[in-house]
Design goal:
Blueprint lengths: L3 E5 L11 E8 L2 H7 L6 E4 L5 E2 L4 E8 L4 E6 L3 E7 L4 H11 L16 H5 L2 E2 L2 E2 L4 E8 L4 E6 L20 E11 L11 H7 L7 H15 L7 E2 L8 E3 H10 L6 E4 L2 E3 L2 H7 L6 E2 L2 E3 L7 E3 L5 H19 L8 E2 L1
Parallel strand pairs: 2-5, 3-5, 4-20
Antiparallel strand pairs: 1-2, 6-7, 7-12, 8-9, 10-11, 10-12, 13-19, 14-16, 15-16, 17-18, 18-19
Helix pairs in contact: 4-5
Length: about 325
């Protein structure tokens, strides 16, 4: 693995922030990782750069995951198992599966980032989470240089969460993810505006492509294209609060939105809280809150990572003051 020095990371993060890596290299195999580790230098693994906020130049080595490949490893009458390289672009993988008529991830269309990041975040959208289709995760253990395989249960998936964000954070590099997909689809179109969008497009016969196209249309109508306005998609997680607290808030804010998660727990859309608090569309020089989606913080061109971080924490404090609800970033702040 060849290392370059003083490399701009602007093209490697969807916020489009101009920061520099002291050293930068791409790895394409487990052998590359074995040759690099153990390293005494500070390092950081970079995937698609869609879920990070870079607040400063990185004084160390940025390792760009470029492990590729989509390999069918087995199939039966109803399912197909695919081992996919962690460096594959997530949306390209989704489109590949739709073309092959393999079902299960069509609702996750147009989510930015790489396949390797999908289990870390347990990415989800429109009633589907990636944990629903992940069979196992293969990861390089940095300390021992061994390859470990985590089955679905061992990944300890939660809402935008996994063991790789908690106990195993910084200990592993994900190299491949194995997905179990369906040959016969079970369509999930009742979440969000999917059904409405299908009807508006006069779609009477469901297909994987029709569902994917509807999801893409909805996402494009709500979320800015990082190629046009720097952003990382949804910046905050949707908080889960006691239902009793939600009912008390409903008396004060009759229009507040909430969804039961389990007995005694209600999920409140962070976007609604931020919008209702008056932040939506606010601009502060080169950064701000997107005009169409309050959950998205944006860089209009020459913004700084620290300024976006400061804005995020101002919003967080304001939401807690107004509603008594703590919202936390979904984005990794570095």
């Amino acid at each position: 693995m060849k290392l370059q020095e003083n490399i701009s990371l602007k093209a490697y993060n969807t916020f489009g922030l101009e920061v520099t890596a002291q050293k930068f290299g791409s790895f394409t195999s487990e052998d590359d990782l074995k040759a690099f580790f153990p390293s005494q230098e500070t390092w950081f693994i970079l995937g698609g750069g869609s879920n990070i906020l870079l607040t400063q130049d990185f004084e160390g080595i940025v390792l760009h995951n470029q492990i590729m490949g989509i390999d069918k490893i087995k199939e039966d009458e109803n399912h197909i198992w695919l081992e996919v390289g962690a460096g594959e672009v997530w949306h390209n993988f989704v489109l590949h599966c739709i073309e092959k008529e393999w079902a299960g991830i069509e609702n996750l269309s147009l989510i930015p980032g790489t396949v390797g990041a999908s289990p870390i975040q347990n990415i989800g959208a429109y009633g589907v989470e990636v944990k629903d289709v992940i069979e196992s995760v293969k990861a390089f253990h940095i300390e021992t240089q061994e390859i470990h395989v985590f089955n679905n249960k061992q990944c300890e998936f939660g809402y935008r969460d996994s063991v790789f964000k908690r106990e195993q954070k910084g200990k592993y590099v994900i190299t491949q993810v194995t997905f179990k997909l369906n040959k016969v689809p079970t369509f999930n179109v009742n979440y969000g505006a999917i059904q409405q969008t299908l009807e508006e497009n006069s779609i009477t016969e469901l297909s994987l492509k029709a569902v994917s196209d509807a999801v893409i249309q909805i996402r494009q109508s709500k979320l800015p294209d990082p190629k046009e306005i720097g952003n990382s998609g949804s910046f905050f997680k949707n908080p889960e609060i006691p239902t009793s607290q939600f009912e008390a808030l409903k008396e004060k804010f009759p229009n507040i939105v909430g969804y039961p998660v389990k007995e005694g727990v209600t999920k409140v859309p962070a976007g609604w809280l931020i919008d209702n608090a008056g932040w939506k569309g606010k601009r502060f020089g080169e950064i701000g809150v997107h005009a169409k989606q309050a959950l998205v913080l944006v860089n209009y061109g020459n913004g700084k990572g620290n300024d976006i971080k400061e804005l995020a924490y101002k919003i967080k404090a304001d939401i807690f003051e107004k509603y008594g609800i703590e919202i936390n970033p979904e984005v990794n702040i570095i």
